[in-house]
Write a structure and sequence with these properties.
Layout: E1 2-5, E2 17-21, E3 24-28, H1 51-58, H2 61-70, E4 83-84, H3 87-97, E5 104-108, H4 116-121, E6 125-129, H5 133-143, E7 149-153, H6 161-164, E8 170-174, H7 180-189, E9 196-202, H8 203-210, H9 220-226, E10 229-237, E11 242-243, E12 250-257, H10 265-276, H11 282-285, H12 293-302, H13 318-325, H14 332-336
Helix pairs in contact: 9-10
Length: about 325
């Protein structure tokens, strides 16, 4: 694991670099006022901007593009790279996280430091995981010497989080949209290390995580996550807060660990099987692994649900009760005895 703690980074390159969006190239010099240099040429953004988004992009376009050019960083859609560039928004997210001096923070995909810097300014210790070599070089040179900052150059989906996640830390992240699902699954697996999270995700993902009974957006990951965390939507973020602007609106969510909440293998298996066959009735899909059809039908009715209920007809908190009534899971009181 390539781990760097507050080390001076390599010297910045002095040669002009390029920034590319969908095959276009933009030349940018390092010193705008240098004699003989020409101003950066203009390029069409990767996505069309709505009128209300133009001003948000323009306020930070020059420093952001200079940084991208300096480190030869090419925003890659495959990695979900859209860089947050609104300092006020970064501070708002950090404030919502409730961190301060002595707080341990895990940040995934720090980008150019829009959240990292206000996190460090709050007095928190930040462990940031970044897979992109050029972005990591940029972070190391610009903030690598700041006290409390640790940079890990690894793939967050492959790294052993038990080695890097603080024992009781807060996850604060603008999650890369291309890997949000796998990252949330990892959060479920490391719930004991992350009692609180403030994350930015696609609005559609936020809607799924907050969907209730009868909502077709609710899926197995959302059910399992909400059995462990209380999930709240804090606010939404428009496309203009990022560069290049993504195709979607984002949502900032707060996740707080439910005291004593845990997932056992029978509960996880039942939820995953049910949503794998979400169009079928629960009494049919779970009859081989949980209980007979008759027992499951009776348990559903006792919950106040139809005996023909499908997965989407249940609230997340219905699942432990359903399995207890069907005899496939001990009640919390029985477990303590």
């Amino acid at each position: 694991m390539n781990r760097i703690d507050a080390d001076p980074g390599p010297a910045a390159t002095e040669a002009p670099a390029s920034v590319r969006w969908k095959g276009e190239r933009v030349r940018a010099t390092m010193d705008v006022g240098e004699r003989g240099s020409s101003p950066p040429s203009r390029s069409r953004p990767a996505f069309p901007l709505a009128p209300h988004e133009v001003s948000a992009i323009a306020t930070a376009k020059l420093p952001l593009r200079e940084t991208l050019a300096r480190y030869d960083i090419v925003p890659r859609k495959r990695l979900g790279q859209s860089f947050l560039h609104d300092p006020a928004l970064g501070r708002r997210i950090v404030t919502a996280a409730g961190v301060g001096p002595g707080s341990e923070v895990l940040e995934i995909g720090p980008g150019l430091g829009a959240l990292t810097i206000p996190l460090l300014e709050s007095g928190a210790r930040v462990t940031a995981i970044e897979i992109d070599r050029r972005i990591a070089d940029c972070l190391q040179e610009t903030i690598g010497e700041r006290p409390g900052f640790t940079l890990i150059r690894e793939d967050v989906l492959r790294i052993d989080l038990t080695e890097v996640a603080p024992s009781t830390g807060v996850l604060v992240a603008n999650l890369p949209y291309s890997i949000t699902g796998p990252l949330l699954a990892r959060l479920i697996d490391h719930v004991d290390r992350i009692p609180r999270a403030v994350i930015m995700v696609q609005r559609e993902v936020g809607n799924r995580l907050l969907a209730g009974a009868g909502g077709r957006g609710l899926g197995a990951p959302a059910v399992l996550l909400r059995l462990l965390y209380r999930v709240r939507r804090l606010f939404e973020v428009g496309r203009g807060a990022f560069y290049p602007p993504p195709d979607v609106v984002s949502a900032v969510l707060a996740l707080d660990r439910i005291p004593g909440a845990a997932l056992d293998s029978s509960l996880r298996q039942a939820v995953n099987i049910a949503y794998r066959h979400r169009r079928k009735m629960l009494r049919k899909t779970l009859k081989e692994t949980v209980a007979s059809e008759e027992v499951l039908a009776a348990a559903l009715v006792a919950l106040g649900r139809s005996d023909r209920a499908r997965p989407e007809d249940l609230e997340p908190e219905d699942w432990p009760v359903l399995l207890e009534r069907a005899g496939a899971r001990s009640s919390p009181r029985e477990k303590r005895s």
